[in-house]
Amino acid sequence: MPETSGFAGRTPETDVIDFRAAEQLLAARDPRGAVKLLDEVIASHPENTAARLLRARAFFAAAQLRPAELEFTIVLEREPDNAFAHFALARTYERAGRSDQAKRHFRLAAALDPQPEYLAAARFDS
């Protein structure tokens, strides 16, 4: 009997191709298309932090703030020193009107990686 699940015919190569295609879709401003591809990659490889980070970015770009928050949180559970994930989670909180939570993660991002964008967002002077 043939396999009917979404995983039929999936190989590591298929997952890499889908990940790269999702990167291109996100760059081309099609975050929903990127999420769709990444859903299958993550279903096959739930431990893949890079795919989760890309899916979080796609959710954010699609204004799906709760799923973005959840994905960024999973990334940070696995990589607590990921400055970009802290910064992106902070932007997600900021967009959702949760400024206290945003400020904390902006400051963590800046402390981990003092690049100008992170430092400006951290507003250490306020």
UniProtKB/TrEMBL annotation:
TPR repeats: 83-116
Highest taxon in the source lineage: Bacteria
Gene3D superfamilies (alphabetical): Tetratricopeptide repeat domain (1.25.40.10)
A Pfam family this chain is assigned to: TPR_2
SUPFAM superfamilies (UniProt xref): TPR-like
Keywords: Repeat, TPR repeat
SMART domains: TPR
InterPro entries given in the database record: TPR-like_helical_dom_sf (IPR011990), TPR_2 (IPR013105), TPR_rpt (IPR019734)
Classification via PROSITE patterns: TPR
Protein name, per record: Tetratricopeptide repeat protein
Organism: Streptomyces minutiscleroticus
Classification lineage: Bacteria, Bacillati, Actinomycetota, Actinomycetes, Kitasatosporales
